[in-house]
Amino acid sequence: MKKVYDLDRISISLEVYNVWKKYVVVKVVEWYEKSGRLKGIDISQIPDEQFRELENGDGEIFLMMPDKVEIVLHVPKGHWGPIEIIEN
Fold this sequence. Notes:
Blueprint: E1 3-6, E2 10-12, H1 14-34, E3 50-53, E4 59-64, E5 70-75, E6 80-82
Antiparallel strand pairs: 1-3, 2-6, 3-4, 4-5
């Protein structure tokens, strides 16, 4: 079973972070163009980023857009890890 986390609970490498920030903008704009909503971009429709841990140790950063279209970037193992939260 694949584990899913909010992206703010995952540490990703700077390389992956830089690729994601460019990739996600392009893909969200493409989604708006294909859905015919480009003139009415509503940032509140863009969901929070999530991270899915795959069985082989790799992962995926993803957004699930309102019409269930996924924007996904593969993240190789070694380029991500969980953020340990210490609560007092």
